[in-house]
Amino acid sequence: MKKIILIVLILVVGFSLYGNGNKEKVLLYIRHGSPIFDTDFIAQEVDPMIRMLKHAGFKVVVASASGAPIEGKSRKLEPDLRLGDVRVDEFVGVIMLCCCKGEVQSAWHASPEEISLVNEAVSMGRPVAAQHGSIEILAVAGVLVGRKYANWEDQSGKIACFEGAVYSGDGVVRDGKIITSAYCPFTAHTFKEQDGTPQLATLFIEAIKN
After folding, report:
1. Domains of the chain by start residue, with CATH
2. What count of other Cβ atoms lies within 10 Å of the Cβ of residue 103?
3. Which residues of 129-159 are buried (b: 16+ CB within 10 A; e: fewer)?
4. Is 134 within 8 Å of 81 (Cβ atoms)?
5. Cα distance between residue 156 and residue 164, in whole Å
6. Does residue 146 surpass a pLDDT of 90?
7. N or C: which end of the chain has fewer CB within 10 A?
8. 156: pLDDT confidence band, cut at 50, 70 and 90?
9. Model-level pTM?
């Protein structure tokens, strides 16, 4: 009987260590205050990303600047972490939503914490994916210099932070561990273009696994 109990305990402990409790973690970053959070388009971006990442075997951890709940008219998102508490080395990749642009009033701006997040992830060789509005964070962080990127139009000759970046169209572009997508669900609907969310998530997963 004691042997049976011991075997059961070993199996339980083993499952907790190597099963669901030991999944590699991906950081999903979102800012507060995005105007599109008050629409159904946020669900069309967040939900497919989380679903695809979980299906690929990852644990998704949501972070925001303050860690406070992000609430819209018909949607509420409970972040798991405050950005300042994020330890980049605990994650195998960082994916940034388009609505990252929302709480920043001036264009082409990123907070010191956001810049640090991106630079740490890149320096550690972690894949970093960004869609539409959040691409500016990569540009301000300086990680697009010499790299191909996607956007709704070429910013490299217009906006200082994009200087040295290589514009490569308005689709979804992967350059090494950097993946960018020009159109989120909201802008895809607005401009009658293709939503890059599924392809961005697919290339992000590939970048982690390869």
Report:
1. 23-209 (3.40.50.880)
2. 17
3. bbbbbbbbbbbbbebbeebbbbbeebbbeeb
4. no
5. 7
6. yes
7. N
8. confident
9. 0.85
